[in-house]
Amino acid sequence: MIYVPDLENYRCFVVRDSNTIRAYKNTPYNNSTSEYRDYYINSNYLYQDGEQTFSQYTTLPVCLDNSKLTTEVYYRNDFDAILTVFLIMSIFCFYLPLKIFTRLFRRFK
Q1: Is 50 helix (H, G, I), strand (E, B) or coil?
Q2: Could you give phi then psi for residue 10, rounded to 5 degrees?
Q3: Burial of 78 from C-beta contacts in 10 A (0-12 / 13-18 / 19+)
Q4: Sign of the Cα pseudo-torsion (19, 32, 55, 27, in order)
Q5: Which end of the chain has fewer CB atoms within 10 angstroms, the N or the C?
Q6: How do residues 50-82 score in pLDDT, each as one tens digit?
Q7: What's the alpha-carbon Rg for the chain, to the nearest Å?
Q8: In angstroms, rounded to a whole number, what is the distance separating the alpha carbons of residues 40 and 20?
């Protein structure tokens, strides 16, 4: 499965290289202009928008099968980094304040 952040707003997805997935708003055809969004999958899914014009001499891109695409966050390339940051933030936001408050407000004997 390949994770794509905005699957429902695009019609055609093409893997351009090992770092980029291009999503077209409409399926490209000859003598047309299509808006696209490039997702950089190794850069936390940053994206860049643009337009591409296809002439009658242009080789049209072959769209990926939609059954191979998903919006499930578990398929992201950086999911392990997200979990690591969440764990560290949880320790600093919950565990440390809890420890401080329990030491401050414990009963005096």
Answers
A1: strand
A2: -130, 150
A3: middle
A4: positive
A5: C
A6: 999 999 888 899 999 989 999 888 888 888 888
A7: 22
A8: 5
